[in-house]
């Protein structure tokens, strides 16, 4: 039997502290639920603590508490005396109603008086539990932890501000925890101690806790170092999507609401779909046309009209297509249940094997955004897979350079929109960028390349959000110069429109990662991390042409240079070279000559390892796991390391052979391995067909000449370096 060693004064002090801590529980509940009569509920808590303090017999305790609860319910909900006929009838009828609801498991019809009754019972049981923790266990750590978690959760996920409440809880809780610890130690040692000696032990600790807490409270504090995790938690739970309030953090992925751009996001490698296609490419979903100075919206130009498309029917939309003989097929396997269709450029039609299950399957295209959705019986339905036919357009360079038609006024009216509040310096910058350029295509290319040549940086962390007075594009162009695809693509659209070139904002997915290669068809894995945005500009005589201003990404447009020009070199991706800090070589200290010192040092080291061998074993195990993981994902990081290291070396005829062999090694790491017996020229043609360039053949020809020909012709090493860097960027992008 546990002997109660607490005096009445001690318990009184503890219960007063508990009363104020329970009040911190009650305040947010009353505030968030808009419930009144908090004073009467606090009176019940005080009454229960007094009954526990004086250890009143449990029968009398029950009678007093039940009487108070019944009085409260009748007084609040019926306004009559509890022992009156009306009061007793109210209690009886309400009890009968709730018993029937409980028997039917009809939870929505539980009455408010019964919910109040259950709330009082909860308080009753909580006070009993606290009494046990204090008197028997002499430890309230779990109660304190639960209180902090409860108030912290309300502060995080609701509008309740619990900052000061948590400070008060921690201050009272720490004082009480230390006091009970001292009391427990005294009891375990079976020491008799009067009140004054006990206070001499407790008071210094209390003063120390108060002093440290006050210093921590009043000292200046740095702002939060981490982004708000709540939007990410809600997004992960399927409650928040990818859109968040200002100051929050987005979970990367495809979202519908683009009215408020900006802010950081967290990566998400969840697989969205697998695409089996002949080449890597961009996957288009929709376009938007109205820039609001904070983001993008759909103007509803066609009043939300949808156009029905039967499976296999040729799709009539605004983008050009390639010739019929270049038609290709891509198979999409959907992992995330999106109800829209992933569109390759040059899309012709969509079919699905699910027609055997859903004979009423049809597709609907929004005339406003060109977003194509799958419907069954006129209801949006997510498909697990479908096949698209497409013929990617190849733009004639002569047509791009020599526009012969006027822009349709309807296109100009819709795609030249800019907000009235757009700062003039944005328009002035656009004029400066295109100065000296004559054709719309040359102007668009100048704007596209501007971001790659003027100190802009791609990043997803600590990205600014414009204030109410700021313009999203203006902030990016003139203040931060740091952002991701939304910043770059939106800015290019605004700059294009500022110089009279119709442009629209495009959303979809980048090409993803190659995961399998089966002859002429390759399988690409596209994740939420590949969600992307880019630009389509209207070029007279050609139509809508896609542009890619984001640093580190390639444009997927194909151009037939039917004129003699070096312009193809301008289309190569330009990114900032990765730099590494110079190596710091530390001078080795002089060898110690004194043998006793060496022996003592060796012994100290040996003792240190012996004392911490368990930690070193854990570190060794963690290191082995890390090495194994790095080995498994080496195809993702090793090419970038090789490329970064090799860029630091001089590129000339003497180092060309090693650079070419390194390029072959990088291609092999990315899954492009030469077949047995395959010549270098044949392999180079395959790579050029895949990357849609001629760089690999040029490098291979010079390599073979330098190896096998005694009279090898001199080559332009600057062109060789450009070709080598272009392929390296393609591999590592």
From TrEMBL:
Superkingdom field: Bacteria
Record flagged with keyword Membrane: yes
Matches recorded under SMART domains: TGc
Pfam families: TgpA_N (PF11992), Transglut_core (PF01841)
Parts forming coiled coils: none
Residues that span the membrane, as ranges: 12-30, 36-54, 66-85, 117-135, 140-158, 164-186, 198-219, 614-631
Stretches assigned to the Transglutaminase-like domain: 477-551
Start and end residues of each stretch annotated as Disordered: 578-599
Keyword terms of this UniProt record: Membrane, Transmembrane, Transmembrane helix
Endoplasmic reticulum found in the keyword field: no
Positions with biased composition (Acidic residues): 578-590
The protein's name in its UniProt record: Transglutaminase-like domain-containing protein
Organism: Ureibacillus aquaedulcis
């Amino acid at each position: 039997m546990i002997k109660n060693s607490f005096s009445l004064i001690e318990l009184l002090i503890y219960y007063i502290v508990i009363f104020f801590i329970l009040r911190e529980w009650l305040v947010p509940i009353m505030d968030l639920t808009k419930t009144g009569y908090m004073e009467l509920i606090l009176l019940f808590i005080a009454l229960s603590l007094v009954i526990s303090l004086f250890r009143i017999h449990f029968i009398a305790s029950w009678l007093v508490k039940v009487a108070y609860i019944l009085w409260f319910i009748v007084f609040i909900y019926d306004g009559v005396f509890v022992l009156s006929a009306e009061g007793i009838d109210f209690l009886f009828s309400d009890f009968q109603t709730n018993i029937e609801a409980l028997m039917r498991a009809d939870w929505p019809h539980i009455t408010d008086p019964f919910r109040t009754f259950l709330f009082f019972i909860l308080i009753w049981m909580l006070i009993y539990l606290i009494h046990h923790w204090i008197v028997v266990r002499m430890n309230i750590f779990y109660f304190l932890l639960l209180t902090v978690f409860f108030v912290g959760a309300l502060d995080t996920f609701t509008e309740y501000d619990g900052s000061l409440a948590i400070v008060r809880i921690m201050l009272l809780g720490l004082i009480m925890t230390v006091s009970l610890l001292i009391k427990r130690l005294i009891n375990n040692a079976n020491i008799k101690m009067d009140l004054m000696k006990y206070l001499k032990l407790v008071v210094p600790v209390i003063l120390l806790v108060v002093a440290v807490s006050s210093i921590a409270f009043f000292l200046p504090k740095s702002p939060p170092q981490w982004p708000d995790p709540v939007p990410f938690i809600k997004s992960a739970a399927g409650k928040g999507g990818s859109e968040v309030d200002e100051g929050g953090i987005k979970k990367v992925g495809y979202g519908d609401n683009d009215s408020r751009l900006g802010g950081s996001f967290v990566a998400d490698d969840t697989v969205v779909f697998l695409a089996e296609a002949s080449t890597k490419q961009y996957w288009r979903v929709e376009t938007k046309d109205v820039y609001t100075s904070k983001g993008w919206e759909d103007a509803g130009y066609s009043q939300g009209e949808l156009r029905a498309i039967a499976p296999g029917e040729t799709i009539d939309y605004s983008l050009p297509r390639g010739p019929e003989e270049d038609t290709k097929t891509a198979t999409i396997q959907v992992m995330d249940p999106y109800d829209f269709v992933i569109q390759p450029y040059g899309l012709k039609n969509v079919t699905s094997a699910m027609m055997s299950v859903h004979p009423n399957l049809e597709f609907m295209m929004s005339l406003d955004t060109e977003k194509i959705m799958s419907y069954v019986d006129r209801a949006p339905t997510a498909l697990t897979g479908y096949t698209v036919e497409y013929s990617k357009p190849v733009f004639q360079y002569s047509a791009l350079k020599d526009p012969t038609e006027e822009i349709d006024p309807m296109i100009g009216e819709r795609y030249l929109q800019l907000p009235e509040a757009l700062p003039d310096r944005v328009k002035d910058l656009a004029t400066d960028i295109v100065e000296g350029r004559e054709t719309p295509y040359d102007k668009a290319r100048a704007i596209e390349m501007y971001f790659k040549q003027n100190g802009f940086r791609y990043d997803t962390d600590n990205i600014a959000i414009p204030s109410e007075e700021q313009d999203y594009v203006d902030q990016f162009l003139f203040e931060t110069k740091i952002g991701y695809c939304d910043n770059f693509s939106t800015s290019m659209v605004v700059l294009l429109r500022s110089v009279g070139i119709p442009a629209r904002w495009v959303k979809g997915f980048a090409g993803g990662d190659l995961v399998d290669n089966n002859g002429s068809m390759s399988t690409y894995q596209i994740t939420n991390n590949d969600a992307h945005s880019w630009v389509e500009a209207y070029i007279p005589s050609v139509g809508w042409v896609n542009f890619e201003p984001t640093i580190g990404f390639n444009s997927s447009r194909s151009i037939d240079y039917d004129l003699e020009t070096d312009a193809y070199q301008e289309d190569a991706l330009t990114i900032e070279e990765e730099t590494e800090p110079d190596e710091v070589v530390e001078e080795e200290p002089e060898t110690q000559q004194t043998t006793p010192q060496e022996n003592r040092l060796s012994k100290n080291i040996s003792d240190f390892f012996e004392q911490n061998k368990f930690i070193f074993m854990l570190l060794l195990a963690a290191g082995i796991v890390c090495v194994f993981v790095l080995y498994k994902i080496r195809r993702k990081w090793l090419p970038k390391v090789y490329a970064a290291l090799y860029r630091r070396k001089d590129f000339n005829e003497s180092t060309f052979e090693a650079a070419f062999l390194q390029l072959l090694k990088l291609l092999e790491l990315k899954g492009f391995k030469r077949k047995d017996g395959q010549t270098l020229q044949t392999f180079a043609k395959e790579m050029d067909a895949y990357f849609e360039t001629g760089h690999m053949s040029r490098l291979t020809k010079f390599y073979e000449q330098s190896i096998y020909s005694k009279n090898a012709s001199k080559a332009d090493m600057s062109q060789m370096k450009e070709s080598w860097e272009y392929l390296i960027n393609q591999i590592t992008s």
